[in-house]
Amino acid sequence: MKFGWFFLFYLLHLGFCILAAVAPPIVFKGKSLTGILSAIDVIDDHTVIGILYFIGFGLFCLEILVGIWVIQQVGMYFRGSGKAAEMKREAARGTLRAAI
Questions:
Q1: Which of 3, 32, 37, 39 has a CA positioned 20 to 30 A from the CA of residue 60?
Q2: From CA 81, how far away is CA 77, in angstroms rounded?
Q3: 53 with 43: CB under 8 angstroms?
């Protein structure tokens, strides 16, 4: 069950990182996230701030790549440790108990 919580919250974290890397103006009306769209919008008026936004965008992209690597490593550990088969058996037992 701990792996399930980890995957759920880590995928939410990766989703936020993707949102922050893009930073659409629909979600955040101001310039609160350092995404690519905010960087393009700001670079015309304030060059230094635009460059900092591009650096933030690059760091969020790096976090996404590292996060994908972490998910792959934990997934391989999860499959190799036998926890996946154990969770399937536990889910089947839970379903059977709920049916009875």
A1: 3
A2: 6
A3: yes
Q: Which is more confidently placed, 52 or 24? A: 52
Tell me how many degrees the CA angle 21-51-39 measures, rounded to the nearest 5: 40
Dist CA 57 CA 51 (whole Å)? 10
- For residues 16 and 32, give the distance between their C-alpha atoms in angstroms, rounded to a whole number: 13
pLDDT range class, residue 14, cuts 50, 70, 90: very high
Query: Contact at 8 Å (CB) between 10 and 70?
Result: yes
What whole-number distance in Å separates Cα of residue 38 and Cα of residue 30? 9
Give the domain ranges of the chain: 3-98
Tokens, residue 36: 């690519």
Query: Structure tokens of 37?
Result: 């769209």
Whole-prediction pTM: 0.71
pLDDT for 12 beyond 70: yes
